[in-house]
Amino acid sequence: MPTPQLLKFIIIICSITSSEAFAASRCILPTLARPFAFNSQCKSRTSSGSTSLYSDRSHSSELDSAYEWLAESRVQNDPSIHGKIKWFHPNNTADSKIDDIEFKRIPLYPLGAVHVPHSGENHTIINIEPKNVKMAMDLMNGIWENSLFCASLRARDTNRVASVGTIMQLLDTDDRSIVGAKTWPGDELTLNRVVAKCRAVGVAEILSIEKCDYGEDDYLIAYVRIYNGEATTQNERSNEFDSIALQIIDDYQKVRSIYINSQSLASNELPKFARNAVQTLPTFDNTIVHNEMKFWMLVETWQMLCNTIRQSRRSRLQAIVNELSVAAAMQAKGPLELPVKRKSLPLDVQKQLDDLEQNASRDYLELGMEPVLDFQEIISMKRHIDRVMKLASMIQRERLRLEAKESLIQAFSEMELGEELVSGNYSRGSGKNAFD
Ligand SMILES: *[C@@H]1O[C@H](CO)[C@@H](O)[C@H](O)[C@H]1NC(C)=O
Ligand SMILES: *[C@@H]1O[C@H](CO)[C@@H](O)[C@H](O)[C@H]1NC(C)=O
Ligand SMILES: *[C@@H]1O[C@H](CO)[C@@H](O)[C@H](O)[C@H]1NC(C)=O
Ligand SMILES: *[C@@H]1O[C@H](CO)[C@@H](O)[C@H](O)[C@H]1NC(C)=O
Prior knowledge:
Bound molecules: 2-acetamido-2-deoxy-beta-D-glucopyranose
Strand order of the largest sheet: 4-6-8-11-12
Signal peptide: 1-21
Structural class: alpha+beta
Number of helices: 11
Protein name: Lon N-terminal domain-containing protein
Organism: Discostella pseudostelligera
Shape: globular
Number of domains: 2
Keywords: Signal
Radius of gyration: 23 Å
């Protein structure tokens, strides 16, 4: 069993289809995390799928952003902020083996998440799919040098894989298979589950997939070129860079303090479990921006905040979707079947739910706090300065959003307080959730 300490920084993003592994992405979590967070957080992942109307754009209650179409449209609409992500199809194999000291032959793990390298944090990946269980076992058994593998983002819409991935090192595994569990109506179920603890140790460009007869339970093997952390070049230490470094830290600290100090804002933006835990968000100073390796810790922290905000939006959306689904199902004749299947609902309700999800997806993406594509862009960048500029624009955007929102809340609560004073009513809070 993992200790609460291990789980402290881990929470599941249930963004990956059930046949695949879960990438346990870090969220802000209270110190005493419940070990069952995995299960309770992930129950909802089967509850909704995208349906007919928008299936081509596959919005769902998951608020997932691992889509190639989305990456593409962001570059088109905002080329100054977004870099192009290169993808390839995994069936694109190379005939001949590349034989060069620079290249490495390692297992490839396509995932619905992006892992930030060099952050020093441990990541958890829960393997269910047989080929991933096999990979974890092979890595553990020393079949692959230093237990290294390459995790790379897989687009949900095209199934293509990003051509830059994160080199991960398997540290430890924990076999949590469930054997002989009975499912209704009585089938025996064996769930092979291997929880892998890994560390992200580098970035690699995927050159090709080894050509061989991959069976259904075989994992892919890739040839990759591992980037070495190139030392910060002198010309990056310009005055301009110094001022960017100051700015990024100033913006970050401001965002951090708003989340910590503005209770009404935090209660709108953060899930319940994170409202106090937000105090544990680390502080940074500008020297970290100058250090190419340590800078990744700031990137990782920012991704954790993005994950947390997504989790908050997602649970709110799913609560609404569930409520509407159940209400609609109760109107139908016959016994109520739970969980409610989307396809069994009247068409107008299906349409309403799809609209709701699509709107929530759009609103969420407009926040600029998604934890996948922006981070894929960052790991794809070769120069430190570009990564810094990209993260700087992300953090600044969030600062501006929070500041605008904060002043709105303030104006509103002053107004409300005024009215309450007139009526002699001091019980506040009625307007707290007016800002979504
Ligand atoms: C790989 O798969 C894609 C999509 O299924 C297909 O369009 C493409 O032709 C395939 N390429 C090869 C080399 O099989
Ligand atoms: C990561 O895991 C390793 C091996 O289990 C452990 O020694 C290390 O302290 C962990 N690091 C963090 C930051 O939890
Ligand atoms: C979705 O957004 C559109 C346009 O902003 C709006 O007209 C529509 O009512 C929204 N639908 C739902 C279900 O919220
Ligand atoms: C004061 O506010 C509470 C909650 O908003 C409300 O239930 C109550 O009726 C109000 N009392 C007066 C005197 O307006």
